[in-house]
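For consistency, the fold was encoded as tokens, which produced the following:
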Amino acid sequence: MMTEGREVLLDVQNLRVQFKVRGSRKPFVAVKDVSFQIYKGETFGLVGETGSGKTTIGRAIVRINETAGGVIKFKGIKINGVIPKEVDRMVTQKIQMIFQDPMASLNERAKVDYIVSEGLYNTRNYKDEEDRKAKVSKALLEVGLLPEFASRFPHEFSGGQRQRIGIARALIMEPEFIIADEPISSLDVSIRAQVLNLLSSLQREKGLTYMFISHDLSVVRFIADRVAVIYKGEIVELAETEELFSHPLHPYTRALLSAIPIPDPVVERQKKVLVYDPSVHDYSKDKPKWVEIRPGHFVMANNAEIEQYEAMLN
């Protein structure tokens, strides 16, 4: 599928994810009819505060969370709901996830050799034991770790090294699309840049496509080509990164941007942090819709707000 000459790798339409609530007949809707497309070779940022539904979307794409509605297509093939076995296998191999917590996402009782090979074992994607070990060594070298680390346990490594092991586990499957779920949020600041630079260089070398989930907008500005802002399970704004930072329209986006720390202490003291108040929207009669207000810049707004946003851009 092509859009404006660019290949759409992942197409999400009206995605809905809900969870049962104990003692209630009504489910909790975590993701409400979300739609977006991710182009081949880009880094797509998904930003929002804790509990906004970012990780739930990522987990729905890799089939950890069941979907209650909508369609997820990868290379034009539907990958959510009931799918054939060969499509499920394709998803397992071509879409990988790097998890947020490098402490919790690695099996403490298993050696690095087994952890990195887990996907290979599940898909039988190796000729023999020698081939598997060679693939593990190659994956470890690609993320800047020594092949001899394969015989060690996760507790023998630092947080940054553990996250590299998690990245090696994803890379060994030779994926096309990687969902990075806050991959640096639990790392020391000094290590964060190393992991981000590693992800960027791997993308260039292997032609990878990323969905980068984060609550840290300064990190997203550094790594993402386009950014979607999500609030309580709904995407409220989507644009190219610099367009979004230069011309934020939705009050929630403006509130998030106002909270980014500024390195200059004088400016930082003087800046005003905005607090988003959902009651600023009057949607009682004039309902909001998903509008392309500028080429590639989408926002959730009703007719009155569209006029207001257009005036802001002129």
Q: What stands out?
A: The chain has eleven helices and 13 strands. The longest strand covers residues 6-19. The mean pLDDT is 92. The longest helix spans residues 189-206.
